[in-house]
Specification:
330 residues; alpha/beta; TIM Barrel; nine-stranded mixed sheet; 15 helices; 42% helix; globular; binds iron/sulfur cluster
């Protein structure tokens, strides 16, 4: 049985920026916001799960609501849950200020901060903001992570990130003080409108066949609307959220444990967690020769997106899963 590790609350779809690649189509005009009282109730509900370790806050840009982050993080910490936050780092223009903000959050339970560094975010957020976040987190002993979205045309890549940030991030990764994840954007949300597939860096069967997704089931998320998903890779929330493979239901209609048991008992999601999504595509292709699917993908998340949106593939995967269930297991 895969255990729940973290729940992320998407506090809103509002962001101060409109990055071209944003899979959730966040921007300054979005108004959907998780009411504070509901967020408190969600924390109370998820805290009853004995395996839960962390509640993280994301969006949109959660630092647009600093008082709410503080209050919710403190509430989660009072239930022995560690705090996490995902931010574009717009507020970290001054090192002393950045250190003070993170120190205050650390006292309220913050143990991990995730930010982004790539051409898309760099249009809005200077490299020194990201360096401030990573340096202050490092000094305080807060674990940090950097997502890097790259294409063949990117100027900023993992290979030159240390130089641009002016800090030895690879050494920090080796010392297990931070992580870096680099991939091309999945073409959903605004990325679908702004990028050509040929620009993406893609991978084939050799790389994808043995590539489990450690996030699904373990890292569930709740949106501003109260929807629970099995991971954060559900694409554009406003366009296809409830149609996503990862949709479990709405917290306003059912209790968390019921919704979460739908997720944790879902055969497809368990296979994706243990083996990755590609084996499902491979089995579907073997079962239905001639099935039209992509040969290469930018990441596991793009495979899930194709399973969700290519109806022929979705139905073939459904048949594969039915056969597995009928035979009594994987
Ligand atoms: S990618 Fe992040 S920073 Fe950019 S618009 Fe979306 S939420 Fe905001
Ligand atoms: S690979 Fe699939 S299951 Fe894993 S995070 Fe991406 S969309 Fe979710």
């Amino acid at each position: 049985m895969i255990k729940l590790g973290s729940v992320s609350l998407f506090l809103s779809w509002k962001c101060n920026f409109s990055c071209n690649h944003c899979g959730f189509s966040c921007n300054p005009a979005r108004t959907e916001k998780m009411p504070h009282e509901e967020a408190l109730k969600y924390i109370d509900a998820v805290a009853l799960n004995p395996d839960l370790e962390m509640v993280a806050f994301t969006g949109g840009e959660p630092f647009l609501y600093p008082e709410q982050i503080k209050s919710l993080m403190a509430h989660a910490f009072s239930k022995n849950l560690r705090g996490g936050v995902v931010t574009n780092g717009y507020w970290a223009d001054d090192y002393k200020k950045t250190y003070a903000i993170l120190a205050e959050l650390q006292a309220l339970g913050l143990q991990e901060i995730i930010t982004s560094f790539d051409d898309y975010h760099n249009e809005y957020v200077p490299a020194h903001n990201i360096a401030n976040v990573l340096n202050a987190a490092g000094e305080l002993g807060i674990y940090s992570g950097v997502n890097m979205l790259v294409t063949k045309k990117s100027r900023i890549k993992r290979t030159n990130a240390a130089e641009r940030l002016g800090l030895d991030i690879e050494e920090r990764v080796r010392a297990k003080k931070m992580w870096i994840r680099e991939s091309s954007p999945v073409l959903v949300g605004r990325a679908k409108k702004n990028y050509a597939e040929e620009e993406s860096i893609t991978y084939g069967e050799k790389e994808l066949l043995h590539n489990p997704c450690p996030f699904v089931i373990r890292n569930s998320v709740i949106t501003p609307e109260g929807s629970l998903y099995a991971c954060c890779g559900f694409g554009d929330a406003s366009e296809q959220g409830p149609g996503s493979l990862m949709y479990a239901g709405n917290m306003k209609e059912q209790g968390f444990e019921q919704l979460y048991s739908n997720v944790s008992n879902n055969l497809m999601l368990n296979i994706i967690h243990l083996l990755g999504p590609y084996p499902l595509v491979k089995l579907a292709k073997e079962a239905r020769p001639g099935l039209s699917v992509k040969e290469r993908y930018v990441s596991n998340c793009e495979i899930c997106d194709e399973i969700a949106n290519n109806q022929e593939l979705r139905s073939a995967v459904g048949s594969v899963l039915s056969k597995i269930m009928a035979s009594g297991g994987v």
